[in-house]
Design a protein that fits this description.
The complex is a heterodimer of chains A (262) and B (266).
Chain A lengths: L5 E10 L2 E11 L4 E5 L6 H8 L7 E6 L2 E2 L7 H6 L1 E4 L11 H13 L3 H14 L15 H14 L4 E5 L7 H16 L3 E5 L3 H7 L2 E6 L2 E7 H6 L4 H11 L18
Parallel strand pairs in A: 3-8, 3-9, 6-7, 7-8
Antiparallel strand pairs in A: 1-2, 1-4, 4-5, 9-10
Chain B lengths: L6 H26 L2 H8 L2 H7 L2 H32 L4 H15 L3 H15 L8 H28 L2 H9 L4 H31 L15 H12 L3 H31 L1
Helix pairs in contact in B: 4-5, 4-7, 4-9, 4-10, 5-7, 6-7, 7-9, 8-9, 9-11, 10-11
Classes of the chains: A alpha/beta (262), B mainly alpha (266).
Bound molecules: adenosine-5'-diphosphate (ADP) and magnesium ion.
Magnesium ion binds next to helix 1 of chain A.
């Protein structure tokens, strides 16, 4: 079996007394798309942020492309260049134009020359369908456009792996589709992706595997069709029922959070 | 129909009373003040005319130069102290905190006297580079840096956390992210308060009065005071004051515009 692109072993993370991740083991093969689903507060973002060390794991190991990220000797800035990350709140640099959002990291971090950085920026803006916004400032764009620029910015660094943390959760519903379309193309081009999302149709169609997290552990994982379409674990089923039909959720009572009767 | 006054009527009456009081106070000052003597002492046209062009070409010019050199020195030092204040290295934070409290707690005049007297004593033979201009930059800048450090620190902290995270996840080192991403955004936030600081420095440059300066190095206050004692008339003081206002009032206006714009952008 070939070496996985992302490998997580025995990962724990605590914030003070709050034991958020309680032993996560996960592998993502090269070119695979893994969607991470689960209730709010279950540790999905923390898991993703441990992969590029925005959070420092309390225990365990993380490997990306064969390099141990959690090795204290490792040059973390060099590792992060190979891992693109897309945030819920886009986090574009508001003080520079769209093009400069893409060229600034290339030039400052990768040391690329001006014309090469501009060329890469143009290519990636075309990739996300925003070549015509090259000279706009982020504030002049819709949320969906900003998120696509954020994806293009990450791609400009030539990452081997892309992490998405609820990339469409801050968007108006009619803007979600454009962002998902870009991600779908990226997946079909063979990018290795870890995607935290509540978009179940995206998970079902695009993901090779789906991971359901709750309470800091992986409760269930498997092929997308199985986890989303025919979940084994009652907690997964309960969660999916609520996601797929929010209005059907029972009013929180003394038994709230309990598994739905199957 | 009731005889009680409506709320609007009551407010009109209350406002009327306030206007009347205001006008009465003005009239009282106008009647009681000895305008002839005031005019004699402060507004002699021929005396005022004699002040030009020197009051502009020398005094106002020097005031501007002193202010700007103090501002630039204070800005650089203030940025350094702000970064130390936010450092993860505890001793840096302590030094920065002590600096800020120390220089904010002392009168600027004391610092000026200290720079003028103690520095030459402490380092005999060494001259502060730039002569008087260097001394003023130091005297004004040391204090200004303490205030600007706090302003800049607040500006840096006002930049959303996601900006640093985005930069780090792209492979920026902490230092590079600060320089390329965080500080440029922080400076946009602090332009209004820093401009305010510029206005304060412009006025504080009058403390040069307490350093020995040559005729060519005089700024507005010293110039006005010297001329006033030469002519035994205070008109030069009034003209010097007007020169300050010509600069500070528009600057303050700019600050308010910038603040209003920043509020709108939120
Ligand atoms: N930087 C942090 N400091 C302290 N607690 C945190 C921090 N980040 C996350 N947490 C806590 O970790 C838990 C999991 O958060 P998160 O990973 O964001 O969950 P999810 O993304 O699944 O909603 C929450 O209880 C949250 O309060
Ligand atoms: Mg989250």
């Amino acid at each position: 079996m070939p070496q996985p692109e992302i490998e997580i072993r025995g990962l724990h993370k605590s914030f003070g007394d709050n034991h958020v991740l309680r032993g996560i083991d996960l592998e993502v093969a090269r070119g695979d798309v893994v969607c991470v689903i689960g209730p709010s507060g279950s540790g999905k973002s923390t898991l993703l942020r441990c992969v590029n060390l925005l959070e420092e794991p309390s225990e365990g190991q993380v490997f990306v492309g064969g390099t141990e990220v959690t090795d204290i000797e490792v040059d973390i800035d060099a590792v992060r260049r190979r891992i693109g990350m897309v945030f819920q709140q886009f986090n574009l640099f508001p003080h520079v134009t769209v093009t400069e959002n893409l060229t600034l990291p290339q030039r400052r971090v990768l040391g690329r020359g001006k014309s090469e950085a501009a060329k890469v920026a143009r290519e990636n803006l075309e990739r996300v369908g925003l070549a015509d916004k090259a000279d706009a400032y982020p504030a002049q764009l819709s949320g969906g456009q900003q998120q696509r620029v954020a994806i293009a910015r990450a791609l400009s660094m030539g990452p081997e792996v892309m992490l998405f943390d609820e990339p469409t959760s801050a968007l108006d519903p009619e803007l979600v589709g454009d962002v998902l379309a870009v991600m779908r193309v990226l997946a079909s081009e063979g990018m290795t992706m870890m995607v935290v999302t509540h978009e179940m149709s995206f998970a079902r169609e695009v993901a090779d595997r789906v991971v359901f997290m709750d309470g800091g552990v992986i409760v269930e994982e498997g092929p997308a069709a199985q986890v989303v379409g025919d979940p084994r674990h009652p907690r997964t089923r309960h969660f999916l029922d609520r996601i797929l039909d929010p209005s059907a959720a029972e009013a929180p009572g003394p038994e709230a959070g309990g598994p739905a009767a199957g | 129909m009731t005889s009680r006054l409506s709320r609007r009527q009551r407010r009109r009456i209350s406002q009327g009373i306030q206007y009347a009081l205001f006008v009465a106070a003005l009239v009282l000052v106008g009647v009681l003040a000895d305008w002839d003597r005031l005019q004699n002492q402060f507004a002699q046209k021929d005396l005022a005319a004699e002040l030009f062009p020197d009051i502009i070409t020398t005094a106002l010019r020097n005031t501007v130069v002193y202010t700007l050199s103090g501002f630039v020195f204070g800005l650089v030092l203030g940025l350094l102290i702000a970064l130390m204040r936010l450092s993860s290295v505890a001793p840096y934070r302590w030094v920065a905190s002590v600096y800020i409290e120390f220089f904010r707690g002392l009168p600027a005049l004391l610092i000026f006297i200290f720079v003028g007297v103690a520095v030459p004593l402490a380092f005999p033979g060494t001259e502060i580079p730039g002569g008087t201009y260097g001394k003023v930059a130091l005297g004004l800048g040391l204090v200004a840096a303490a205030y600007m450090a706090e302003t800049i620190r607040a500006g840096i902290q006002a930049v959303p956390k996601g900006q640093m995270e985005a930069a780090r996840s792209l492979g920026f080192s902490h230092a590079r992210a600060m320089v390329s991403v965080i500080i440029p955004q922080a400076f946009r936030i602090v332009i209004p308060p820093l401009t305010n600081e510029l206005v304060l420095l412009f006025k504080d440059s009058s403390l040069v009065l307490f350093l020995g300066v040559t005729l060519e190095e005089r700024e507005l206050t010293k110039f006005g005071r010297d001329l006033a004692s030469q002519t035994a008339n205070s008109t030069p003081i009034l003209v010097a004051g007007l020169c300050y206002l010509i600069v500070t009032v528009p600057l303050s206006f700019v600050v308010r515009r910038l603040e209003a714009r920043a509020d709108k952008a939120k």
